[in-house]
Specification:
Chain lengths: 873, 110
Amino acid sequence: MLLHDLLFRLRSLMRRSAAEDELDNELRFHLERQTDKYVKSGTSEAEALRRARLEFGGLDQVKDECREARGVSFVESLVQDLHYAARTLLHSPAFTACAVLTLALGIGANTAIFSVVNRVLLNPLPYRNSQELLAARKNDSLPNLEDIQRQTKSFASSGGINIEPMDFTGKGEPVRVHGAYVDAGLFVTLGIQPMLGRWISADEDVKGGPRNAVVSYSFWRDFMGADPNVLGKAIRLSDNSYAVIGVMPRDFTLPKELADVFVSLWVAYPDAAAERDVHFMHTYWRLKPGVPLAQAQAEIAQADHRLAEAFPDTEKERGTLLIPLHEWLVGDVRSALLILFGAVGLVLLIACANFAMLLMARAVARQRELMIRASLGARNSRLIRQRLTESTLLALVGGAVGLVAAKAGTTLLLALRPAELHRFDAIPMDPRVFMFVFAISLLTGLLFGLLPAWSASRGDIAEALRENARSTATGVSRSPLRSFLVTGELALALILLAGAGLLIKGFLRLRSVDPGFNPANIITMYLQLPGTRYPQIPLQTNFRRELLARINSFPGVEAAMITDLPLAGNYVGHRVVIDGQPTPAVGTEPEVQTLSVMGNYFGVMQIPIRSGRDFRAMDREQQPRVAIVNEAFVRQLFPGQNPIGTRIDWARSDEPHEWMTIIGVVGDVKHSGLNQPVDPAVYAPFSQNDEAWRKFMTLVIRTRVPVAGLVEDVKKQVWSLDRQIPVSGIQSMDDLLAVSVAQERFNMLLLGSFAALAVALAGVGIYGMVAYRVNQRTHEIGVYIALGAQHRHVLRLVMKDGVKLGLLGIVLGLAGAIALTRVMVSLLFEVNPTDPATLIGVALLLAAVAMLACYIPARRALSIDPMTALRRE
Amino acid sequence: MPSRSIDLPQGTLDLLILRTLSLEPLHGWAVSERIQQISSDVLHVQQGSLYPALHRLERRGWVKARWGTSENNRRAKFYQLTKAGRRQLVVEQDAWQKLTAAVSQVLETA
């Protein structure tokens, strides 16, 4: 039956012109027979023809209905409608431009965010069978990783990676690159093959194995001239020569890390590789096919337990938690992205409301045409379908323009992206994005084209027609749909504005957090001494002291150095013991941040000394060891006491203690981020450092005035001391501060611009409504003015509805905001999601915008000349 | 137009066409004439709805059409009932008789 229907329609469609001829012949035959009949009954031929025609009715209409009955007409009239719609739209370019632009803004913003959501949340990870991949929440050491892998059966493989800066010294300036210290299992686990050559094999991944390196595509391209015969060539990394054995593919990225070269940790740092109790490797795991996560987790818990029993001193507090890799990667940004996606959906709704109102206004403007077509026999369903064709065509064009806008938008988003999204260096427009655009455009066109058409059938248009004909002088157009749309879009705009207001307030709060130092006019640079040439602490100290002395001899400059800069994301943690206090059990000593400094660090950073004294030049090697602690240290470890004079040391099991005396207390510094709590910290002089592996340092240089060429001068001094030390991480402290709040800034800017867009669209919507009504009521207003109405009366008359609807929308929006903003809690810093000041502020702001949007068109009503208005009667 | 003619109730046109065609293949004009004749001029088929109805029945596969020569020696399109059409006629006749019986019952007793 269905098949017959389909074949029939298809055949009719294929032989359309033949079918048209047949239809023509069939109907003509009927007319002839009927005429014959009348002639035979004695009527004159002319009269017979007239009667037959009259009886038959509209020939074209019958044909139309026959076509429809045959099922041909759908496609055919669609083509006709499209043609007609395109023609009429081109005839009213202003309307078309407004509608397309409105939708392009809404759809473009949605598409931009959707492409990010698609890329970050929906796309599978670029690894083979990525659903089998897991990550451990905590770092671990290679010996533990190897033991667990041996003792469990759930995992096909596992791998570890740690990124450290490496010095690449080839031709030209020495360069700091991201070095990945890995084990052979890593790439088996990720399931990636090198583009050229091979991966480090398991039998090479041992202490004393060959110095082989795999390089990234960009390293190969930038530093090796994309040489296809690169395999086997030697490169110098941190003073060691490595043979290149592989090049990674261009589109390869690590799950979270950035790396330029990959070397075996067992080969490069056998001592570090063997250390069980230093957990510094990110570990990745691949489940055997079909093994559930819970089973793997249970097995790994048993392995943890065995490790804790075997190594009670260091491995007691294990608790390896595995999570699917995808979840681990997007966990932080998922909620922010989903909230932004929801917000941008509201923007689209507002744009759609404006679109619907534009269509309604146009329907009224085209009433004559519609009336003529209706009286010519066009059926209502056909007229509605034709208007739907027009709105859908508009929406599709709007969607296409929106797609172009979205492309630009994603480029902008990428430029603003926070660190969490840094591995996404491109947001491609894949088929899913195109499907998304097509689907929302189609939906928008149909749904919001149907609304006005539906409302027309409910009499809105009829009322408008009547009103336009001025048959009722008092007729006030209160189209319920239009009122609903205006109210709705103001409510939505208020919700967005509230969200944006809260984020802005949170961001301002965050920015006003005192970081504990003065970031202005500070330039920072990162250096690392190669372990091969600076194996001992005195050598390192000499380098540091000499470099600082040279930089401090520049006029107008003061320089100091520290191991890890605040807000840069790193620190070394140590457990401490306090002389004179009972020693806690091994592994339960309090952990503190340990920072080494040289030069007038607290002075340069303007960190206040709260009590005691600063370091002095005499606090150096061979002198009594000293330390300065922060206020958090005092609060947590010496509550209510004066710590100065107390001796502390790192918790160690072997050597006798080398006590450091606390000589001062400095103000707290937000080391881990402005929105993070301050941890206890211990500062000690570099020169009294007893850990040779801490061969890195960050210069902090305060300049009284901006010094041109300072960076180049510093580099020259570094290289005059050692030709092969790269200077990297050159950034001002202000920039570092900005980077540390990039995620918050990203959220705020995005939601802020959506809210601005929403307010603008809602303003245009309410403006359009008032302007339309002023236009419709010109006559009435003219009479009013002629009767001596004051300006304010006229204003009140035309603004009343708009203001009323606006206020209603704002009240509804406030209720909506109170209900919805709680989803944002995780994005807000020290701001309550229903912060009254913010809600009242945005409500007032939107009310002001709405008033203005009513006032501008209302002012036009004042200039109506009563005589002209009356003459239009 | 004779005043005693009445408009066809909705949905009965298909039934009348099928019934008329069940005797012999006819062209459109003849179908309308035949209905008018048999009903003693009471039922007048609106030509504006006759042809769409014929085309609709053709699409449903209840009638099939072929071109032939009419009684006045002209080319005309003749409609003929198909097997499916005969089945449909039985179904619709049944439904109609049930309906009219029920309606008259209500009219006579209520």
